[in-house]
Design goal:
This is Reverse transcriptase domain-containing protein. It comes from Schistocephalus solidus. By secondary structure, the protein is α+β, with helices and mostly antiparallel strands. It has 2 domains: about 100 residues, no CATH class; about 55 residues. It contains 5 helices and 10 strands; from the N terminus they run βαβββαββββββααα. The strands form 5 sheets. It has a two-stranded antiparallel ribbon. Strands 3-4 form a two-stranded antiparallel sheet. A two-stranded parallel sheet has the order 5-8. Helix 3 packs antiparallel against helix 5. The longest helix is centred in the last third of the chain and has 17 residues. The protein starts with a strand and ends in a 9-residue tail after the last helix.
Amino acid sequence: MAYRTDGTLINRRRMQASTCVSTTTVHDLLFEDDCTLNIVTEDMQRSMDLFAAGCADYGLTISTAKTVVMHQPPPSAEYNAPLINVNGAQLKNVETFAYLRSTLSRNTRIDDEVAQRISKASQAFGRLQASVWNRYGIHLNTKLKMYKAVILTTLLYGAETWTV
């Protein structure tokens, strides 16, 4: 995964700065007991072997039942599912998967993630139906604060990372 920062993120005129472009490549994302390896196709098997060896060095085990592969080719490229093995077991190729409560998809569009967010916000709204929304003793201002605190945060979770 590579990301780029340039003048589109800040107002260069106001800050009196010239255009500054930097590119950084992120090879892995680690969180508690989860890991995502971001690798170009040619390096997938080699990187997985190195990761498995590193895990073994520290006494960690990779769960091949929970480990999946998702290849995201450029839109103009043909999709070829990579065959990646860990400790003799072939990993499953998937179209989408959830990572840190966000849905990542092979087609790199956010449609699945937005649908998931709408569904979760709708469920949260429904759970508060009897206890908040249908209660006449609760002021409208309090209901609005509950809506903003629960429903909107559920709906917009991770929205700052979405690309359109």
